[in-house]
Amino acid sequence: MRTALAIVMLSLAITQVGCAPYQFGNAALFPPGVQTVHVPIVRDSTFRHDLGVRLTEAIIREIELRTPYKVTADPSADSTLRCEIIGETKRMLTETNADFPRALDAAVQVRAAWTDRQGRLLLSNAVVPTGDLSILFSQDERFVPEAGQSVDTAMQKAIEDLAGRIVSQMEVRW
Predict the structure, then answer these.
(1) What is the pTM of this model?
(2) Are the C-beta atoms of 158 and 106 separated by less than 8 Å?
(3) Could you write out the three-class secondary structure of the chain?
(4) Of residues 60, 63, 42, the one with CA closest to residue 52
(5) What gap in Å lies between CA 74 and CA 159, rounded to an integer?
(6) Any long-range contacts for 57-60 (C-beta under 8 Å, 24+ apart)?
(7) What are the residue boundaries of the structural domains of the chain, listed by start?
(8) Would strands 101-116 and 36-38 be described as parallel, antiparallel, or unpaired?
(9) Class assignment of domain 30-168?
């Protein structure tokens, strides 16, 4: 009985001291000390000016769904995630005998930077930081006009995938 009591007391002492910084749930995947994220409208330097607003909405949705952070409109939030669409392309992959497009790729390229209030980099694409404050993301989606698919549906799918990849990069490196 004494041995069992000693083991229980020892395990309680170890859990109180040894595991104090341990976090449970998805909060363990993200940097501590950050509770709010400001996501300004994504700048868009392409001819498709609606892509920036659509990507902003997708990123906010992903952050609210997958992270412990609260997205706020306040620029003095704990952190800021800035993104810029730097390119979008449409490329023909195959064509019919009559030279009509059969399968195409629609691609979007984005530069993203996540910093805290002091301007320190929170988003990192490498185990060893390079000093660059932004990460480049690119996503392409295939679409087939003959099957009723359009460049708009392909771009929306690419935007949703990009938002997921950007938010995934917000996780802490192991």
Answers:
(1) 0.77
(2) yes
(3) CHHHHHHHHHHHHHHHHHCCCCCCHHHHHCCCCCCEEECCCCEECCCCCCHHHHHHHHHHHHHHHHCCCEEECCCCCCEEEEEEEEEEEEEEEEECCCCCEEEEEEEEEEEEEEEECCCCECCCCCCCCCCCCCEEEEEEEEECHHHCCCHHHHHHHHHHHHHHHHHHCCCCCC
(4) 42
(5) 24
(6) 58/159, 58/160, 58/162, 58/163, 59/83, 59/163, 59/166, 59/167
(7) 30-168
(8) unpaired
(9) alpha beta
- Which token pair is 104? 């195409």
pLDDT in tens, the chain (174 residues): 667 666 656 565 555 544 434 455 555 677 788 899 999 999 998 888 899 999 999 999 999 999 999 999 998 899 999 999 999 998 988 888 888 888 999 999 999 999 998 888 887 665 545 555 578 899 999 999 888 888 899 999 999 999 999 999 888 766
Name the residue among 77, 174, 169 with its Cα closest to residue 116.
Answer: 77
Q: How many CB atoms are closer than 10 A to CB 36? A: 14
Assess contact for 145 and 101: CB atoms under 8 A.
yes
Q: Using an 8 Å Cβ cutoff, are 83 and 135 in contact?
A: no
Q: Residue 146 phi/psi, 5° resolution?
A: -60, -25
